[in-house]
User: Which sequence fits this backbone?
């Protein structure tokens, strides 16, 4: 049956961030729907943000388009253009290489839920606010040193 | 600003279906969000189904994963496993090559809204209920004749 049974899919708050940048996403609970439902051409993450949690550190990708749609609750989209409230049905696109660091932050007192769509992660990712780069293979500092 | 302004994106009920199969989707109103917002790696269609309208003829793709999420209203997912109500927040995956013809039908009295995600269309599509095949380049009948 094609309808997705969310309860049957593992939910995790794991992160690959170095410890010093991990606290911001401790309240981010992700279900990876693509692999769990047989999709291989793109990924769909179902994400619950607890109050105070961020979707990621603010970042942009050199080689990966991203798209998000809010399903419930409220988050603030923070990017170079400012702060934008995002509520159920609101959507945003982040074209690869746009240089516009972005993330969603749950500043409300309730959980919010969104979907994030992207290709298999590839290429470098930039984090304008913190001393972090994703090389495409590993995290390192902007001077090239490893964590 | 990454947040999508739906009102600024063209909405159309155009279809490439042969005339005899087009009536079912006359009340399907699509906005293609990917090209309009700078995404090229995958497509996202914002779809409003008027009462009585279907998302497509029932079909499956040989070479194209599909994913849908309901944003508002109610539709019935019709596939080989039967009929499944789909409401806001409900999601479904259609892995390429699964052979399971599917579509959404709005049998309610109100509009419903969903998003459909897929790669750039490619490969053959099969329509189990009607005399139609998409070759990857054109529609034709199952005996190979053209419309």
Assistant:
């Amino acid at each position: 049956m094609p309808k997705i049974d969310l309860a049957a899919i593992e939910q995790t708050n794991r992160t690959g961030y170095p410890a010093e940048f991990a606290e911001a996403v401790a309240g981010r609970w992700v279900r990876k729907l693509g692999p769990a439902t047989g999709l291989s051409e793109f990924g769909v993450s179902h994400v619950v943000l607890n109050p105070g949690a961020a979707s990621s550190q603010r970042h942009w990708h050199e080689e990966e388009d991203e798209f998000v749609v809010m399903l419930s609750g409220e988050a603030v989209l923070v990017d170079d253009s400012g702060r934008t409230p995002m509520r159920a049905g609101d959507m945003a696109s982040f074209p690869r290489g746009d240089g516009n660091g972005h993330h969603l932050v749950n500043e409300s007192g309730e959980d919010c839920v969104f979907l994030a769509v992207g290709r298999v992660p590839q290429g470098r990712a930039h984090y304008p606010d913190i001393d972090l780069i994703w090389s495409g293979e590993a995290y390192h500092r902007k001077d090239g040193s490893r964590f």
